[in-house]
Amino acid sequence: MTATLPVAAPRPSRRPARRARTAALVAVAVLPLLLSLAGPLVAPHSIDTPVTAPFATSGGGALLGGDQLGRDVLSRVLHGGTLLILGALLVAVVTTVAAMLIGCLAVLRPALGRVVERGADVAILLPPLLGIMLIALVWPGGGRRAVIAAAIVLGTPYAVRVVAAAASPLATAGYVEAALARGESTPYIALREILPNLRATVLTLFGLRFVEAVYVISMAGFLQIGPQPPASDWSLMVRENASGILLNPWAVIAPSLAIALLAVTVSLVTRSLAPDTTAKAVTRS
Predict the structure, then answer these.
(1) What residue spans of 168-224 are helical by DSSP H?
(2) What pLDDT digit, counting tens, does each position of 248-267 carry?
């Protein structure tokens, strides 16, 4: 008589739960992004018109009180994120695209790979603040454009090294060797054979570059390298209203929370959207 072995029940798929979590994170991230981009349309007051006493608390038509000149803090917060988001998005896109192209080519061309590695070593050792100040000195009238250029120049070598490290094991894969045997060109192998297998790395890198750009642009704005008063900018608001934080804390807390919420939500969303590449263990009973 043959014994019948019990058949293990199939495990429920985690995809619906992961999709629900991703949708929730996207919704959380879209809200501050929409408020930042559409803020000028819904702001209750002009950004340069005093509506309260300096550093007045909430009330009198100013939900978050007034700043050092009595301007509406809420209106300035709603106006202050548009250029920051667009600038960080530009930096993230340019840096990620350059990293994808150069990083995939570097693993197929050892000479280019060595140049990328040396350039990344130099860029990592250079503090971002020092790089921003150097570019600001070379380009004194650049303003925010100089800051964006500094973020791209300083961030690209590191991003290229990340992509090259992720693509290095793929350069010896069987399908890559088959493409080389067919006589395919290096750009074809890099873009058609290697790059599609780096979706998780590229998407995560994009989120990290966006957060880094927010940090660099905000730091430069706090040091008044870029936007100048009376411009409405989150980091500039923190600097301008720091002296009155005990009188109206929202004048400093509101723009600080906006910067933090933007960076955290975008980072969480990009990590959630990245394909799950975690190796799944196979168990036997």
Answers:
(1) 174-181, 186-188, 199-222
(2) 999 999 999 988 888 888 87
Verify cis geometry, omega within 30 degrees of 0, for the bond prior to 110.
no
In this structure, the dihedral spanned by the alpha carbons of residues 11, 14, 15 and 18, taken in order and rounded to 10 degrees, is 180
The residue with tokens 């509506």 is: 51
Do residues 84 and 148 lie in contact, with contact meaning Cβ atoms separated by under 8 Å?
no
CB distance 34 to 271 below 8 Å: no
Q: Is 47 helix (H, G, I), strand (E, B) or coil?
A: coil
Q: Per DSSP, what are the bridge partners of residue 276?
A: none
- How is residue 74 written in tokens? 């809420």
| Stated pTM of the model | 0.80
Strands (E), the chain: none
First and final C-alpha spacing in the chain: 22
Residues 213, 151 contacting (CB under 8 angstroms): yes
| Sequence-distant contacts of 185-190: CB under 8 A, at least 24 apart | 186/105, 186/108, 186/109, 187/105, 189/108, 190/101, 190/104, 190/105, 190/108
Q: Give yes or no for a cis peptide into 230 (omega within 30° of 0).
A: yes
Residue 64 contacts residue 250 (beta carbons within 8 Å): yes
